[in-house]
Amino acid sequence: MAIAREAEPVGSLHEVREAGLDREDLLGVYRHMLITRGVEERGHILYRQGKIPGSFYTGRGNEASSVGVATAMGPDDVGTPLHRDMGVHIVRGVDPWRIFAQYMGRVDGPTHGRDGNVHMADAQLGLIAMVSHLPAMLPVATGCALAFRIREEPRVSVGWFGEGASARGDAHESMTFAGTRQLPVVFVCDNNQWAYSTPTHLEYATEHVADRAEAYGFEGVVVDGTDVLAVYREAKRAIEKARAGGGPTLLECLTLRMEGHAVHDDAFYVPKPMFERWAESDPIERFRTWLRANADLGDEEEDEISAGVKKLLNDALQRAEESPLPDPADLADGVFAAPEDLDTPHHK
Amino acid sequence: MAEITYLQAISDALRTELRRDQRVFLIGEDVGVYGGAFKVSLGFQEEFGPWRVIDAPLAESAIVGGCTGAAMMGMRPVAEMQFADFISCGWDQLVTVAAKQRWRAGTPVPMVVRLPSGGGFSGGPFHSQNPESSFAHIPGLKCVCPATPEDAKGLLISAIEDPSPVLFFEHKHLYRRIKAEVPEERYTTPIGKARTHRAGDDVSVITWGAMVHTADEAAKQLESDGVSVEIVDLRTVMPWDKAAVLESARKTSKVLVLHEDTRTGGFGAEIAATVAEEGFEDLDAPVKRIAAPDTPVPFSPPLEKAFIPQVEDIVAGLRELAEY
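Above: the input entities. Below: the C-alpha cells describing the complete assembly.
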C-alpha cells in the first residue's frame, strides 16, 4: 500500500492559475519543453555525424518532469540536475548553443571541453554540475540547503536522482540528514522505470520510492511525471513549503525513458507494449493537447512557437560549430582553485 | 607566548576562524555537545551555537557532500572525521565531486576535512591509518600534515582560507604529547612550503607528521657519533616542496625518505623518484626509504611497534647511508 500522497492531475485553466501560471507562462513552459527535446534531437544528429565524442544521453520523455520542477524554482534557488534533466538548464536560461558546444567538446561549452554530455552547469544560474556517480549530487544539494539554513536565507535547494540511484547510500544519508535538520531541500526522483536495463522491482521493494519519505520524517508525493502542470503544482508546493521552514519533500515523478540508457543502447529489454504506452503518454504531446483544449492554443500560435524554437536551435548549432576545440596547453590550469575564483556571487 | 599542545593549537585555530569569519562552521560526529571524540571542539557549541558547530548523523557522505554544497554556496565548512580512517565512507564525495569541481565546472570548493590520523596507541586497523598518499594522488585535493603545534595552527588557518578542498591530517599521537610555544594572535603558514626541522650536513631525512619527532630522536643519537642529520619537515604532501627536498639533497648528497604510511605507493615513493630523476647528480648513495610494511595497521603492542618505524630503525638507516 502506498504511503506517499498520490497527487491528482491538473484539470482546468483556473486550477493552473491558482498554482501561479498565467497563459504566457504556460506558453513559456511549452516552449521550454520543445527546446529541451529539440536540443536532444539535434544532439542525436550531431552524434550520428560523428561530431560528439564518447556517448550521448537524452531525457526524452522526461521533459514535463524537468521543466515542471525548474519552473517552480525561485530565481535564487539552486539545483543539481542530472542527465535526464536538460529541461532544468533550459528553464534556468542556459543558451542552447553552449549546450551544443558542450556536447561537441568545444571551448564554449560550460566545461570548456573538460567534461562531456550533460555534465555541465552554469553556477551563475544557480546550477551545480553533476557527476556520473548517482546520486552523489544529493549530499551536495543538501549542503546547499544547509548553507541557506545557517544564513537564514529564504532559498531552497533541489536535488535530482533516479529510482535506480535511490538504492545507494548517498540518498539515504542525505535524506536522513535533511530530515533531522528539516533543511530547505526538495528531493526530486525522476522515476523512469529503468535503471539502465534493471526494472523497478529489482531496484526497490516498496510501491513508490516516495514512500520512504515518511521514514525520514518528511512528506513523500508521487506525481504523474508526464503531466507538466501537476509536476509544477507539486514542485511549487514542496519548494514553498521548504522556503517557509517546513522542511524537505521527496517528490517522485513517474516518468518515461523513451530511448535507451544512452545512444548505444537499443533498450531491447523494455517490453514493446511499454514503449507503445510511453508513446501515447508523450509529455509534450499531452501538454500540447491540453493547451489546445484549455488555453486556446491555435494552429497559428503553435506554428509560431515551433518556428521560433527551430530558428533558435538552428542558429545555436551554427554558433556552436564555430566554437574552437580546447587547447591542450591549458589542460593543467585550474586543478586547484585560485583566490580570484571565489569572486562569484555565492562567495561574496 | 604560551606553551600549548598540538591539540590545543588546532582548537585555537578553529576558534580563531569561527570568531573571525561568519562563513566558517564545524560539522562532524559528536563535535557539538561532546566536543569531538578528542575534545578539539570542547565548549564550541556553547560559544557558537548549534548551527555553526553541527552534530551530524553518522553519515560521512552527507557530512563531506554537505560541506561541498555549503562551500559552493559561499560558506567555509570544516568537517571533522572522527578518525581519518572513516574518510573511506566519504571518499566519493571528496574524490568524485569536491576534487574535480573547480577543474571541470569552474566552481571552487573551499572546504577543510580534518582527519585525526596515525597510530602508536593500539588503535588497530581502523583507527590508526595514514591515508595521505591516497588523496595526494587525486588531482584537486591538498593534503596538509603538520608536525608541530605552531604549524598545526598556522596551517589550519591557511587551509580554511584556501579556495580548494584541503585535507588536514592531524596526527593523534601528537595531540597531547607535543607541546610548544605558539603565538596567540592569528597567523597563517603557507601550504606547500617545507620547514627545516633540524639543519645538518651528512644525511637528509625527508618526512612529515609524527615521524618528524621520531627522526629527531634518531638524529640526536647520531650526533654523538659525529653524523650530522638534516630533517626536512614537508608540512604538506600536496602540494609538496620539491625545491626544498632537492636543495637538501644537494647539500648532504644522501637522502632518507621516512613515513608512517605503508611503503608501496606511499608518498615517499614519489619523493624518492623525484630525487632520482632530478637530483641524481647530487647523490652519493641510493635514496633510501623507511616506511611501514605493506600490511594493515596491527593492534597488539609488539605488532604495532614492528609496524610503525621506530627510532632504532631510523638510526640504522641513517648509519647505513652515512657509511655508504
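Note for the figure: The mean pLDDT of chain B is 97.
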